[in-house]
Amino acid sequence: EIVLTQSPGTLSLSPGERATLSCRTSQSVSSNYLAWYQQKLGQAPRLLIYGASSRATGIPDRFSGSGSGTDFTLTISRLEPEDFAVYYCQQYGSSPFTFGPGTKVDIK
Amino acid sequence: QVQLQESGPGLVKPSATLSLTCAVSGYSISSGYYWGWIRQPPGRGLEWIGSIHQSGSTNYNPSLKSRVTISVDTSKNQFSLKLTSVTAADTAVYYCARHRPPLDYWGQGTLVTVSS
Q: Residue B24 half-sphere exposure, CB side, CA atoms within 13 Å?
């Protein structure tokens, strides 16, 4: 089973600032099958990024993903008020499809 | 627009079987893709439970495999989850989702509490 580690656990930033979230995997993720999801309180997760760097339908271009192998990054170029949420990474290259513990982005 | 909606009991007794159904609209399950279940204990992270293809082929998380059955009913455009011998540790919000992969469309989730 591939274990995912996310850092930091919490990121305190102000609107307009840049957010950089890290996801590391215990083994290389095949074909860069790495996704990022955003979850707001009381809501279902929403797919942001798949294939490590492709934006899902309707996702603003301030969200970008990068990385390969075991080291991946989600960047939010300029935080909007609606971006304060919890972000999860997930690998879907190897079953079981595992999630990271999440990074909470909150308002400083 | 693809939409998914979970339904089922919100309270299940310990040692009983948890049963949930996910109704899909806006997309025919018969057209393809996998369809999955994910859960989230209160205040905690996400756990993939398993997925099923429209053909009936399944893939389960080994941590739950002995207790999980996922089935599909293409005539009703829905799929279902059964989890046997539940304990308090199975208390969670249960989500269904289209599993292309990745999980691109999600239901709103339903809270299932295991308690006597």
A: 27
